[in-house]
Amino acid sequence: MSIEFKLNGSRTELEQPPQTALLWVLRGHLELTGTKFGCGSGLCGACTVHLDGQPMRACITPISAVAGKSVTTIEGLSKDQSHPLQKAWIETQVPQCGYCQSGQIMQAAALLESNKNPSREEIVAYMNGNICRCGTYLRIIRAIKIAATELNEG
Amino acid sequence: MIKPDTPVNHQSTLSRRRFIAGTSGLTFMISIGGFLSDNRASATETPASNKSRGANITVWVKINSEGMITILNPSAEMGQGSMTALAVLIAEEMDADWSKVRVEQSPIDPKIYGRPGWGGRGYHMITVGSMTVRGYFMPLRQAGAKARYVLLKNAAMNWKVPLTELKTEPGMVIHRPTNRRMSYGEIASFAKTVKDIPEIPEMSLKRPGEFRLIGKFVPRIDIPEKVDGSALYSMDVIVPNMLYATILRTPVNGNRPMSFNEKEIRSMSGIQKIVPLEHGVGILGKRYEDLLLAKRSLKVNWSQGASAEIFDSEKILEGYAKVASSRKKRGHVLAQKGDADSALQKAHRTYSADYLSDHVYHAQMEPLNAIVAVNPAGDGAEIWAGTQSPTGAIKEVAQLLGTSPRKIKLHPCFLGGGFGRRSMSDYIVEAAELSKAVRKPVKLIWSREDDLQYGAFRPMCLQRLDAGVDADGNLIAWKHSIIGDGRRLLSSGAKTPYYDIPNQHIEIIGLNHGVRLKHWRAVGHGFTKFAIESFIDEIAVSEGVDPYQFHRQVMRNSPRALKVLETAADLAGWGRTPSDGHAFGISFAERSGSMAACVAEVSLEKSSGKIRVHRIWSSLDAGIVVQPDNAVAQMESAIIYGLSSVLSERVTFKDGKVQQSNFHNYRVMRMADAPEEIHVKIIDSNESPTGIGETGLPITGGAVANAVAALSGIRLRHLPFTPERVKKALES
Q: Phi and psi of B371, rounded to 5°?
């Protein structure tokens, strides 16, 4: 099946069986490996991308579901680590092993798109589907607050 | 395209969106031997790396004419931050300008790049046991001082002045009498190799007061590339012409595939090769997603008779109490002091309790995976993997191929978590077996289900503790028996040299269930310290003594431990009344040479049995702390990892089969269950560094159990404290 969609702002067209998970298309065929495989069942959030601005687990999203839509991955969030969340992530020294962090940042970016000034409770509720086994949760919360402040002041 | 023999280059300035090995013939490493170490031989002529241009100052350091300094990292970076900490050690003593430092992975050659082993035996490149910074602390500072010596010597020759008239400032050599200055970059442009670098004795190194980098905030080098998806894990490596692979492994450890529906699987779309293995069946093809479908259709008849077949973990754990009571079973003695049995008989009051703990799983976020390319002749291989044990992986793959380790080249990648699981090389050897069968590069990816169900777990156990106090309430007798499978995995943390108890007997009663077990973060300390700290608390409360004061009394002859405990208690404000429905619990532990203590504030939802940990106040004595902010991060990490295991994690077996499969039924801590606050106080010290990455973990079990006891009177004695167990305890 030929599928056309927008990927990080560019028109993309490819041949794939319709049930193929977006994750394997991104990682294996388009070689965008920033989006991670963690559980394959939508349970951990490591593969979070945006589909028309909404956070989506790429491991359980069939490629057919993105036809005609716009997909943003961590590679498309900014060109130079300049997204307020990326800057706040560095400032707060969030990542440890780092494997879940693309998904964490994409989930947080979707949160700030819909809620410019989330409370702690709102952050926790929105981020709860993203597992970090290194336990960087408290720094993630701090970094989201810092990024929100920058967004609101900027 | 990056050529396959290029070392993986970790640095913040280079963004690697992709890492794709070149097509033009995979090269097979001959050897990086032949070079001599500045530590272990007198010469220093070794390229720091083939890739970065510039002068080789020593085996560890290379400087180019712009003054960019490349420092080699010999350890695995799995989130613990040692690739930055080790570079800091070298940079500190060579007086490097940190803004010009980049870090590259060192070759895998323990003779040059290893740290001294336990008891001074050999040199090792295995990243385990929180050994890295403490093991490299002295050797790498000396290596940094030697690099500085080479720079000074070259400047002295160039200026034709005595070396003694020179000093350094970050990135700069200065001639004191004339105040002439020369940057490290300028020196590198003409630097000659210096033979016979003198050994730099410890007393010639900087004093702690002179440190510019050690003990200061230095941002981690790996963090920028971990916020834009460019950090390279082996999961991200793509090698031309590679096949993906998956393996269906035996659900019961020790059984073998007898037959399977090969014809059906072979006819499925995208399946290129099926490879039977000793413990499973491998399926290979160009697209990983095709393999997942085929694996679902694969039907295997497994052999029978493995000893693990009768393993029902819950039933067997219940039976451990009988083993503990059986006089026939003599344990292996771990520690013995005085006469615990007769002291117990003479004691004014005695206490006894059994503590249980279930198996737990590493659950590192990056499922196991490796890329191995066995060469056409079958006598060499190239490996891309995140591993804690690169030398172990090389040795095992060489054994498999019947070849020399010199013909195996390993490219270390970032580890998406290790926690002990990646010190085993099983996943790398599997990929090598598959690549050997097809003579093509093979990328083997374990699914999350594979990773969990063919896991290697922290063993379950029962711990029986007996103690006696004299008429004045002094602890005079202590017996600790640990029953379970796992030998040294069980003994870790059982000894308590910081507690002054005159009569002690600590032993293990070993069993064998035939299941896969392995080191897990802090090894056995997670459960042994839970039992010890809970028991101390139980005794204190029964004796009518405040648990903190009781602790202080028992550790009165260990000033370092006492200070750690008091620091955590002060930080928490021990003694104050908690808010309604909350309670505090205190706990202390040592791990990897360091000491930590914490106070936990918890509440309990009686209707569901759910424990909530609100706040943790912790203290850490780890000697000189090279990276203080990272040490705090490691404490936060180990505390959350620990709390996760204390509150919800458990692997159970039925008929030898793991019952859990993914994150829906193996529950790791999520953000909503993390404490709202974790406070960490690092104690100032000028002692040599000790381990940090695991030290926050063993303190969690006791602190939570003791807080729950303070809140409800219920003693939770079985890890994890799942809501079901807590509810049951509340109802009984």
A: -115, 125
pLDDT of residue B575: 97
Instruction: End-to-end CA distance of chain B: give it in Å, rounded.
Output: 65
CB contact under 8 A, A99 and B416: yes
How many cross-chain Cβ pairs, A to B, lie less than 8 Å apart?
Answer: 176
Q: What is the secondary structure of B577-614 as a DSSP string?
A: PPPTTEEEEEEEEEETTEEEEEEEEEEEETTTTEEEEE
Tokens of B445: 């990816």
Are the Cβ atoms of A24 and B230 closer than 8 angstroms? no
Query: Global pTM?
Result: 0.95
Tell me the C-alpha distance between B668 and B647, whole Å: 9
Contact residues, B window 612-651, toward A, CB-based 8 Å cutoff: 629-630, 633, 636-641, 644
Mean of pLDDT values over B646-674: 98
User: pLDDT tens digits, residue range B599-652?
Assistant: 999 999 999 999 999 999 999 999 999 999 999 999 999 999 999 999 999 999
Report the CATH fold assignment for B234-305+368-445: Aldehyde Oxidoreductase; domain 4 (3.30.365)
Q: Which of residues 120-159 of B touch A (CB under 8 A)?
A: none
Question: Could you give the strand order of the β-sheet that contains B718-719, starting from the edge strand earlier in sequence?
Answer: B332-337, B503-511, B475-485, B461-469, B349-357, B718-719
Largest CA distance in chain B: 86
The domains located in chain A, with CATH, are 2-77 (3.10.20.30), 84-153 (1.10.150.120)
**Residue B193 at interface with chain A, using a CB cutoff of 8 Å:** no
Q: Alpha carbon of B222 to those of A28, B78, B101, B228, B636: distances in Å?
A: 24, 10, 13, 11, 19
Strands in B180-183's sheet, in edge-to-edge order, are: B166-169, B172-175, B180-183
Q: Using an 8 Å CB-CB cutoff, list chain A residues near B447.
A: 40
Condensed to tens digits (0 to 9), the pLDDT of residues B200-241 reads 999 999 999 999 999 999 999 999 999 999 999 999 999 999
Closest Cα of chain B to A35: distance in Å?
Answer: 7
* CATH number, domain B31-219: 3.30.365.10
- Looking at this predicted complex, what is its ipTM? 0.99
